[in-house]
Design goal:
This protein is an alpha/beta fold and 419 residues long. Helices cover 38% and strands 14% of the residues. The strands form four sheets. A six-stranded mixed sheet has the order 4-11-10-9-6-5. A four-stranded mixed sheet has the order 1-2-3-14. The protein has a four-stranded antiparallel sheet with strand order 12-13-16-15, with helices on one face. It binds 4'-deoxy-4'-aminopyridoxal-5'-phosphate. 4'-deoxy-4'-aminopyridoxal-5'-phosphate is lined by residues 50, 113-115, 118, 141-143, 207, 211-212, 240, 242-243, 268. Its EC number is 2.6.1.76.
Length: 419
């Protein structure tokens, strides 16, 4: 049908587009865990806007807050002027998220994207310490501007732009390569040994679970040791929670299970909850040495996003219902994948909460799984250094039945793709 051949995109849109290659149809509407294309086909969404739709599409609670606000002629855009919507968001973030966790952070609005939040974090770490280098990890993903790209492992994304890993020392990440590489010991040794060539860094930036990097999960003990190592050496710890924050792994912040308190935290993707661009850089108050205007950006005052973000925090984070459901559904997925992979010798699985990965032998197998899933009405993306990992991020609000339905399609797809 016409909907399946969106040739106008091929003619008019840059080749840089990517996800549409896996999903060759034109989507029109969306609700909850489902997208509908213009020919009326429905797709269960296990991608959720790359983790930016943790509360599902057009979540009714968020939608009604937004519609009410727009109907009252609420301000849409305000740079960084004081507005009621921004004040109410800040108060809610403090009351619902930060205060109950005893977390003391000031909130910076660095611009609309996760990349903006990372740029601000890197710049601030360099300014606060007077040091230049940043340590990041192999297969890390932190964003696409020059600074964030310089701490991103993916060489394909860096190479064309000529961005070397200038501010980073690439190292394996805990549990990547089966956890056989003692990267922690390596880092400790390199920092202590002046002959190692590793300059004392301003900061270490880490994802607790690498999303784009292939669902590589750091153990809580490893994160605690990393935090201690940073503290002992006066190195700032930045947790990039752009993809794993806002409940993806269970708790609001993905580092809560490890009991660590990073110096700087980045949030974006699901913070607005409605797919509206919004990002935060959270900083320990003593680090707030920015000069007024030293880091700014036109779109750091998206009041529509403040409204939906506040509604999401009020509705989902005043109690631990969503956290418990996420942990439970995550276990449901991981148990199903353990059973599945027991029958498929070349496939394994890993994850935490509702970020789960199915690891295939190569990119071709993973691509076949994604294509088979699409044909059967399920949207899943691939990730990982060789694009061999099928990455699953259903909305946290997906029902048990929806999760079970998606798992069944994936099981068929994985079986078909590996036979
Ligand atoms: N950090 C992490 C951990 C991410 O997953 C992403 C996006 N995939 C980013 C930063 C960049 O966010 P954005 O695409 O909104 O700039």
């Amino acid at each position: 049908s016409a909907g399946l051949r969106p040739s106008v995109f091929d003619e008019l849109e840059s080749e840089v587009r990517s996800y549409c290659r896996r999903w060759p149809t034109t989507f029109a509407t969306a609700s909850g865990s489902w997208l509908t294309d213009e020919t009326g086909h429905e797709y269960l969404d296990f991608f959720a806007g790359a983790g930016s739709l943790n509360y599902g599409h057009n979540n009714p609670v968020l939608k009604s807050a937004l519609v009410d606000y727009v109907a009252r002629d609420g301000i849409t855009h305000s740079l960084d002027t004081y507005t009621v919507a921004k004040r109410e968001f800040l108060e809610t973030l403090h009351r619902v998220v930060l205060a109950p966790r005893n977390l003391d952070y000031k909130v910076q609005f660095p611009g609309p994207t996760g990349t903006n939040a990372v740029e601000a974090a890197l710049k601030l770490a360099r300014k606060c310490t007077g040091r230049e280098t940043i340590i990041s990890f192999t297969n890390a993903f932190h964003g696409m501007t020059l600074g964030a790209l310089a701490v991103t492992g993916n060489s394909m994304k860096r190479a064309g732009a000529g961005v070397p890993l200038v501010h980073t020392t690439p190292m394996p990440f805990d549990h990547y390569l089966g956890g056989t590489v003692d990267d922690f010991h390596w880092l400790e040794h390199a920092l202590e040994n002046s002959g190692s060539g590793l300059e004392k860094p301003a900061a270490v930036i880490v994802e607790t679970v690498q999303g784009e990097g292939g669902v590589n999960v750091a153990r809580p003990q490893w994160l605690r040791a990393l935090a201690q190592l940073c503290r002992d050496r006066d190195i700032l710890l930045i947790v990039d929670d752009v993809q794993m924050g806002c409940g993806r792994t269970g708790p609001f912040f993905s580092f809560e299970d490890a009991g660590i308190e990073p110096d700087i935290v980045t949030l974006s993707k699901s913070i607005s909850g409605y797919g509206l661009p919004m990002a935060l850089t959270l900083l320990k108050p003593h680090l707030d040495i920015w000069e007024p205007g030293e880091h700014n950006g036109t779109f750091r005052g998206n009041n529509l996003a403040f409204v939906t973000a506040r509604a999401a925090l009020e509705h989902y984070w005043n109690d631990d219902g969503l956290e418990g459901a996420t942990r439970r559904r995550g276990e449901m997925m991981s148990a199903a994948f353990t059973d599945l992979t027991a029958t498929l010798p070349t496939v394994s699985s890993r994850g935490r909460g509702m970020i789960q990965g199915l690891v295939f032998a190569d990119a071709a197998q993973a691509a076949r799984v994604s294509a088979h899933a699409f044909e059967h009405g399920l949207l899943v993306e691939t990730s990982g250094p060789r694009d061999e990992v099928v990455k699953l991020l259903p909305p946290l609000t997906a029902t048990d039945d929806e999760i079970a339905y998606g798992i069944r399609i994936l099981a068929d797809a994985a079986t078909a793709a590996t036979n």
